[in-house]
Write the structure tokens for this entry.
Amino acid sequence: MLGQTLKFAAIAVVCAMILAQVALKPSNGTNDAKDAAPTRVAATAPLRIEALAATSAPVYAPVSALDEYRIPANAQGHYVTDVFVSGQALKMVVDTGATMVALRNEDAAALGVFPLPSDFTIPINTANGVAHAAPVKLREVQIGSMQIYDVDAIVAERGVMNISLLGMTFLSRLSKVEMASGSLLLRR
């Protein structure tokens, strides 16, 4: 049911953008294409449909032009989505209980971030006990149309994490983080 509703919402967003383009196209009373200026949509973010992780079929959520992003909870109640770090897509859990953005060692390597063994000085508590992480600064973190620059983060030791976390060093820089009706709303 939720998947069908989100599909209809995505179709509605696409239709609204097409109508906006038609409404902004200048009309000079002729059908002469050479006289018409190129069509532009002013002050709207590019439409992007983000695939959200789920244990079975993917769920899709439209990203609005209003700097909002809604993530439905997966079957386990987690908010998992694609987050772009310096242009590289990473699957992350949005975690309001995580103090910092925390990257799996493997995800950091995919970004070209390779902390030295001596950099792993921050103790972190895990389900398997205490591990260590290295502090890093991420140039750009993007979710939907929202971009935050110079985000403090940590890189966990190899094998410590099975998914990266989008924590409060990113979330605290948003104006709204709200859980309601089985989804998480993020607003710039």
